[in-house]
Automatic annotation (TrEMBL):
Claim: Thylakoid is one of the keywords in the record: no
UniProt region (Disordered), positions on chain: 513-527
SUPFAM superfamilies attached to this UniProt entry: Heme-dependent catalase-like
Protein name in UniProt: Catalase
InterPro entries, A to Z: Catalase, Catalase_AS, Catalase_clade1/3, Catalase_core, Catalase_haem_BS, Catalase_immune_responsive, Catalase_sf
Enzyme class per UniProt: oxidoreductase
Cofactor(s) listed in the protein's UniProt record: heme
Length: 527
């Protein structure tokens, strides 16, 4: 080992000495090795090559959606009850059982369409993803701020995202492409009415709601199930921006929401959300005018009142943004005992997509990274090797036994907490069919009617601004949909575009669509 004392820093400087990744001291970090002071450079210059080639690899692929986002950490505290009833009646998930019980959480807020450095002022749904590090392993609740989504079948996800992302030729986001797709996708109306109202540009991440959006299940000790939907309500209140507010702010700052979140935490103003749950019996509910597994619908709160089950407090910023925010990986497949999937076709498709993209984006061993590992040393697997293996998953006692079953040692299966065969019995033909009760307009219209006048005005103005950049057939079809959503909305948007109800009365329903009797009645009145 070389003696560094003669080459080392000036006396009295007790900072640690720079090394390369092999643990070798770096004597000169200013000049690479060259033949003579003016070069040429030499190829055996390990220190220079290691430094520059690591830099060349500093970026990993950004998330294909939700690339811009910020993660903060904190805890979830359970209330132990669903309203007045002990929570154990409905779920055996341990994190919810006792009043005051805390689980560590990581929460990443995001925009959806823009790239990693895009503006946080954009009109865009916001992601609201929470990882609970529970005593039974991780639970991820991966939601958004609007409560519904554009589509109801996962097979449409690449299409909706391609339409919303920049044009593949010019790389400019084009209303023409967005509304071309939406005009042929009537289930998007509920989402559009929300997204193009002031709710579509939340003021920042602290003042937004969150929703699980998809329908999940709760399972109790007896194996009985209920359908549930999750809601996060900010204690800070809900605030939004108009298009004009957003444009003014964006002129100065494209990262205001991240700065606001981290600034508040650093000042000790820890943001807090209450988690509420809606519940219904686990069956098809033929009495409802929508399917409980349809993520373009909300559940009416009068019939299915949301009840508070706990609260989340965020009190820590990441120590390193890349390690803890870029590399964090959420997925809808990450559930703990007592929580389950429903057959919601979006949810099932999402559940494949998240871990698939993370094996590509972060690498096959992404779950060995500290931010993604469960707490409590819970991981004991026989999975081995692959790129960037960081350590051998522990347990089993005998290192040569990386398989199961074995009489030489190794790991054994767990016993199911209750019997395995309590799930629903499912019979049916393999098919490709849309769900019945699509009812694409009713809730969109109810949402429009619930808005305050200024919110309706803002929605109408935004739709006219964007649709006026679209081709006439797209404008006509969108006015046709809006007339079915709510006469006032269709009439006002139509007026702005110079399209009356009579101009669209000849349009036939889309092949992909089932109309309700009320929709047909409205159609008859158009002409
Ligand atoms: C992120 C797929 C629907 C919320 C992502 C990512 C993919 C994806 C591939 C990137 C993940 C990563 O790189 O780590 C899908 C598919 C969907 C779907 C295939 C439909 C079939 C939804 C819906 C919501 C949602 C309905 C809201 C309820 C999110 C959030 C993130 C995300 C919040 C960001 C997670 C983070 O902060 O890292 N989605 N998604 N997605 N998605 Fe989805």
């Amino acid at each position: 080992m070389t003696d560094v004392s003669s080459k080392g820093p000036a006396q009295g400087d007790d900072r640690e000495i720079l090394t390369n990744r092999q643990g070798h001291f770096v004597y000169d970090n200013q000049n690479q090795r060259t033949v003579g002071a003016r070069g040429p450079a030499t190829l055996e210059n390990y220190q220079f090559l290691e430094k520059i080639s690591h830099f060349d690899r500093e970026r990993i692929p950004e998330r294909v959606v939700h690339a811009r986002g910020a993660t903060a950490f904190g805890y979830f505290e359970a209330y132990g009850a669903w309203g007045d009833e002990p929570i154990a009646r409905y779920t055996r998930a341990k994190l919810f059982q006792e009043r005051g019980k805390r689980s560590r959480v990581a929460c990443r807020f995001s925009t959806v369409i823009g790239g990693r450095d895009s503006s946080e002022c954009n009109r865009d749904p916001r992601g609201f993803a929470v990882k609970f590090y529970t005593e039974d392993g991780n639970w991820d609740l991966v939601g958004n701020n609007l409560g519904v989504f554009f589509i109801r079948d996962a097979i449409k996800f690449p299409d909706v995202i391609h339409a919303l992302k920049p044009d593949p030729v010019t790389f400019v986001q084009q209303p023409r492409r967005i509304f071309d797709f939406m005009s042929q996708t009537p289930e998007s109306m509920h989402m559009l009415v929300n997204l193009f109202s002031p709710r579509g540009i939340p003021a920042d991440y602290r003042h937004q709601q969150g929703f699980g959006v998809n329908t999940y299940k709760w399972v109790n000790q007896q194996g009985e199930t209920k359908l549930v939907k999750y809601h996060w309500m900010p204690k800070q209140g809900v605030r939004s921006m108009t298009e004009e507010d957003a444009a003014n702010l964006q002129a100065q700052d494209v990262g205001h929401a991240t700065a606001d979140l981290y600034g508040a935490i650093q000042r000790g103003e820890y943001p807090e959300w209450e988690l509420l749950v809606q519940m219904m019996d686990d069956h098809e509910h033929p009495e409802l005018d929508f399917d409980p597994l349809d993520d373009t619908k909300t559940w009416p709160e009068q019939e299915f009142p949301p009840k508070a089950v706990g609260r989340m407090v965020l009190d820590r910023c990441p120590e390193d943004f890349f390690a803890e925010s870029e590399q964090i990986a959420f997925g809808t497949g990450v559930l703990v005992d007592g929580l389950d999937f429903s057959d919601d076709k979006m949810l099932v498709g999402r559940t494949f997509s998240y871990s698939d993209t993370q094996r590509y984006r972060v690498g096959p061993n992404y779950l060995q990274l500290p931010v993604n590992q469960p707490d409590h040393g819970l991981v004991r697997t026989n999975q081995r090797d692959g790129q960037m293996t960081y350590h051998v998953d522990g347990g089993g006692g005998n290192p040569i036994v990386n398989y199961e079953p074995s009489i030489l040692g190794g790991l054994r299966e767990a016993h199911y907490p209750t019997h395995d065969e309590q799930g629903p019995e499912i019979r049916g033909r393999l098919t490709r069919k849309r769900i019945p009760r699509t009812n694409d307009y009713l809730q969109a219209g109810q949402r429009y009617c619930l808005m305050e006048q200024w919110e309706r005005d803002d929605l109408v103005k935004n739709m006219i601004d964007l649709l006026s950049q679209c081709d006439r057939p797209i404008q006509e079809r969108m006015v046709w949909h809006f007339l079915l959503v709510e006469n006032d909305l269709g009439t006002r948007v139509g007026e702005g575009l110079g399209i009356g109800a009579k101009d669209v009365a000849h349009l036939e329903p889309l092949e992909s669509q089932d109309l309700t009797d009320e929709d047909r009645e409205r159609l008859r009145n158009l002409g």
